[in-house]
Write a structure and sequence with these properties.
The chain has one domain: Orthogonal Bundle (MetI-like fold). It is built from 15 helices and no strands.
């Protein structure tokens, strides 16, 4: 297991390097001059050039990338052009807010999605299946910004049950987590249903039923357990999407997380902040895929031998 872990970990290194190159180049293609934004509309060309030199923007692209990578190796992501504070400090102030929102969204969406998927697959072509899949299709089809606005209108403005903005207390996470996790729950439900239906066709399920086992025991002990490998894949990938896809939800609810920070940074052309945030979102996927591979190896030891 250790050798497999080491092999998969080392394979991540070139992926991270490739991601860093694409992130660095992507940010440089964003229209607008960050030096002009920092200097202000009334600054002279000389002032703008001085700021560009201070920020290192007058260097060639390879030189800028070298300085960027050397800084990353030292744990230095640069200084925010907007706040003039270290990027690591600005991200650190908001990172845990996004993580809390993501974890809460994932918890309820996994529970709801798995339950809907199991009961839909178990009762295929019955009213339970139609009801569950209707909810799933609705969750995928409804735009997150519209759902967020409707939740604010009903539960925050009219009923006054939850706050409309901010991140103070658990109540402030309810509406954003529902908005963020609705599509994830729907995807997990559909994937779980398909996995349950396929496993129900296996010979060992017919054998278990022939032995006289109750249907609930067959479903939860044999079918559900064997569908977990497929479900783990979806849950892991959706966790990455939640971390990176919180931009719209955080903007709707004025939630102080990484998503809203990214929007502000793009509007200001804050290069160091933008490339650091995109790199962090990308690293989430890389790390999550690594964890999924390791979970596979734990659930199915044959994978280690391949």
């Amino acid at each position: 297991m250790f050798r497999y872990f080491l092999k998969r970990t080392l394979a991540v290194i070139p992926t991270i390097l490739i991601v860093s190159v694409f992130v660095f180049m992507f940010v440089r293609f964003i229209p607008g001059d960050p030096a002009r934004r920092v200097a202000g509309p009334d600054a002279t060309l000389e002032d703008v050039e001085n700021i560009r030199e201070t920020l290192g923007l007058n260097k060639s692209i390879p030189e800028q990338y070298k300085d960027y990578m050397l800084g990353l190796m030292k744990g230095d992501m640069g200084t925010s052009l907007k706040t003039q504070r270290p990027v690591t400090y600005e991200i650190g102030q908001r990172y845990m807010n996004t993580v809390r929102l993501t974890v809460v969204s994932l918890l309820w969406s996994v529970i709801a999605g798995v339950l809907i998927g199991v009961f839909s697959g178990k009762n295929r072509s019955k009213w339970q299946d139609y009801t569950g899949m209707t909810l799933a299709v609705s969750g995928i089809s409804v735009p997150s910004f519209w759902l967020g606005l409707m939740l604010i209108s009903v539960f925050a403005v009219n009923l006054k049950w939850f706050p409309t903005v901010g991140s103070e207390g658990l109540k402030s996470l309810v509406l954003p987590s529902i908005t963020l996790g609705a599509s994830v729950a729907a995807i997990i439900a559909r994937f779980t249903r398909s996995s349950i239906i396929e496993i129900l066709k296996e010979d060992y399920i017919r054998t278990a039923r022939a032995k006289g086992l109750r249907e609930n025991k067959v479903v939860w002990k044999h079918v559900f357990r064997n569908s977990m490998i497929a479900v783990v894949t979806v849950v892991g990938l959706q966790f990455g999407f939640l971390l990176g896809g919180s931009v719209v939800t955080e903007s709707v609810f004025a939630f102080p997380g990484l998503g809203s920070l990214l929007i502000d940074s793009v509007n200001f052309r804050d290069y160091p902040m933008i490339q650091s945030l995109i790199l962090i979102f990308s690293l989430h996927f890389v790390v999550i895929n690594l964890v999924i591979d390791l979970l596979y190896a734990g659930l199915n030891p044959e994978i280690q031998m391949q």
